[in-house]
Design goal:
This protein is α+β, with helices and mostly antiparallel strands. The chain folds into 4 domains: 14-190, RRM (RNA recognition motif) domain (Alpha-Beta Plaits), CATH 3.30.70; 195-227, no CATH class; 229-272; 299-351, no CATH class. The chain contains 9 helices and 12 strands. The strands form 3 sheets. The protein has a 6-stranded antiparallel sheet. Strands 10-9-11-12 form a 4-stranded antiparallel sheet, with no helix packed on it. Strands 7-8 form a two-stranded parallel sheet. Helix 6 (203-211) links the parallel strand 7 and strand 8. The protein is elongated. The termini are far apart. InterPro entries: NOB1, NOB1_Zf-like_sf, NOB1_Zn-bd, Nucleotide-bd_a/b_plait_sf, RBD_domain_sf, RRM_Rrp7.
Length: 362
């Protein structure tokens, strides 16, 4: 006895704390005698619902192709999503002008979008498992955006006109032309699913998460592709060091180290230098002051192996660790402790003229 496939129903849109609306799509159901199998799994998919998320497009992301007052950003789409399905889903809120599948950046042109959409809509060039996680739905009028929470209802989904989203992706039969794509899909299905991931829209935090080798997710689908690393580069001899606490160059000994970003591409380190960088020479146009003896005489720190630098460096590290051990309440209540911030040793004299006579106090 064959079981009938129940009519798939869309749940109402749920507003999440991050501003996205969550929408549950129809599950991949059994239809008649056939069963739907996921590649790499032996059990049929009787009820496997899928959630996608949408919200009005963020105006802070600049793009001439995406008007902020008429665009909806859709994320976590099924892999076989077509522009027609998205148009059917979002049409009840207002007339849809265009549907763009894939990321659109500040440098994306209309020609790029047209070429991409022509490839995705052509059955001879669109692979069954091509990625389509992100899409943009552009309305003709801005009045459609306030109606978004009301569009997801069972009556708005053309069940007879199209199968549940995601079903065609798993029912497709691969032929010889798709053998390579199918093999890649099977390998991807065998990969272990990460149990823990971190979600953040802050690019600085994403950089830290990737350096910790953690799985990264983003609410709007935009994640950094390259890690941003730092090193110290000498402006005098152009040598580099990975020790970020260094104040003096290990090669030439001068206090000319500058923090510089770098990346590694194909095993080769690439420094990211500013093309019109001007080294700050303030304070270096004056001669050094005459040495003074006695207790009041300050010894200028010009090299790392000076005794004065080693003593001040040791005291600085001691006070810094002492402040880290203090509680936040103690620092906030004690004004003296809050003002006594540990400062590193001063190198050189500074930016003023050391040979200029000081003004007498009145």
């Amino acid at each position: 006895m064959t079981s009938k496939m129940p009519a798939p129903a869309l749940s109402a849109a749920t507003l999440l704390p991050n501003g996205f609306y969550a929408l549950t799509l129809p599950p991949l159901m059994r239809k008649g005698k056939g069963k739907v199998y996921l590649a790499g799994h032996d059990e049929p998919l009787f009820a496997n619902p899928h959630q996608l998320f949408f919200r009005p497009h963020d105006a802070r992301v600049p793009s001439d192709l995406l008007p902020a007052d008429r665009t909806v950003f859709v994320y976590n789409l099924p892999l076989d999503t077509t522009p027609a399905q998205l148009k059917t889903l979002f049409q009840p809120a207002g007339k849809v002008e265009a549907v763009i599948i894939g990321n659109v950046g500040p440098t994306t042109t209309k020609e790029d979008v047209d070429a991409r959409m022509a490839t995705l809509t052509d059955p001879t060039t669109a692979a069954p498992h091509r990625p389509a996680e992100v899409a943009y739905v552009i309305y003709k009028k801005a009045t459609a955006l306030p109606q978004l929470p009301k569009i997801v209802h069972a009556k708005n989904w053309a069940v007879k006109a199209s199968m549940p989203m995601g079903l065609a992706r798993y029912k497709v039969r691969f032929d010889a032309t798709h053998a390579t794509d199918h093999a890649a899909l099977e390998e991807r299905a065998k990969e272990a699913v990460p149990s823990v991931s971190c979600m953040s829209d802050d690019f600085a935090l994403q950089n830290v998460l990737l350096q910790m080798n953690l799985n990264l997710l983003s609410l709007d689908g935009m994640v950094i592709k390259q890690l941003k690393n730092w090193l110290m580069r000498c402006h005098a001899c152009f040598k580099t060091t990975m020790d970020m606490d260094k104040r003096f160059c290990p090669s030439c000994g001068g206090a000319t180290l500058i923090r510089t970003s770098y990346s590694i591409e194909d095993g080769v380190m690439k420094l990211h230098l500013k093309r019109v960088f001007q080294y700050r020479t303030r304070g270096t146009v004056y001669s050094l002051p005459k040495p003074k003896g006695g207790r009041e005489g300050d010894q200028l720190i010009l090299r790392e192996d000076q005794k004065e630098y080693q003593v001040q460096r040791k005291n600085f590290e001691h006070h810094k660790k002492k402040q880290e051990r203090k509680g936040w309440d103690e620092i906030m209540l004690n004004a003296a402790a809050a003002s006594a911030v540990a400062r590193p040793p001063t190198i050189g004299f500074g930016s003023k003229n050391p040979n200029e006579a000081k003004r007498a106090r009145k």
